[in-house]
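Usage

Read records sequentially. Each one opens with the input sequence:
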Amino acid sequence: MDGLESALQTFTAIGARFEAARTRLELAALAEARDDRDGAGTHAREALQAFTALDTPLYAERARLLAGK
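and closes with the structure output:
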């Protein structure tokens, strides 16, 4: 997970919002696989916010499913 968290920090720092949100989806999926529902939900909700703002409905739907919304 450290590699994904590092990637998230980098994408966030350079303003790559779409890539940061995609990374959050991966972090959410990984947290879910590890039975970390809180972590999965947090990353999925933040990804959903970003994808909604970026008007990327397919990615937003995937995030919505992971967030349980």
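Summary fields computed downstream for this record:
- The mean pLDDT is 94.
- The chain has one domain: 2-67.
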